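Running low. Got one?
___
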Amino acid sequence: MVSVGLAVAGASDLGKAWNCVARCRFRTISSFTACLIWIMRHRRSRSRAVVDELARRLVPDELWDLVETLIPPVKPRPQGGGRSRVDDRAVFTAIVFVLTSGCAWRHLPPSFGVTVPTAHRRFTQWTQAGLWWRLHHAALDELNSQGLIDWSRAVVAGACIRMRNGTR
């Protein structure tokens, strides 16, 4: 069961649809995502405030300050021109939404301001550039500098298996 209370906090004034959604519990993340997409299509002006709140919860300013320094720089196009680049924070927030909600890329709500191909392309580029690994280590370093990690309880696991002669 997925409770929607966090995603629609403060949404009681958004009308009958939001009041209904705020009280519901969904059996799966995808049903929550489908409901959220329907509401965003039918109540764009009001739902934008909720999406902004959701975006702030998914990627708070402290996390963005950490991520912004790790995002690889963009190489300018040699021929120039082209479309203007979508904001990295909006793309990162959309990627975090997809990864944390479990929805399919194709169900990414358009209210994030990022198209599905853009979000998936940047996810692939950032994965190949090692962003997620660097972000994991930067987060661990930040938590360690604040004394929030107890390294005495860390566990390193590994396995060694002897190979028999002549087998692969």
Remarks:
- The chain has two domains: 1-58, 60-70+84-149.
- The chain has seven helices and two strands.
- The two ends are 46 Å apart (CA to CA).
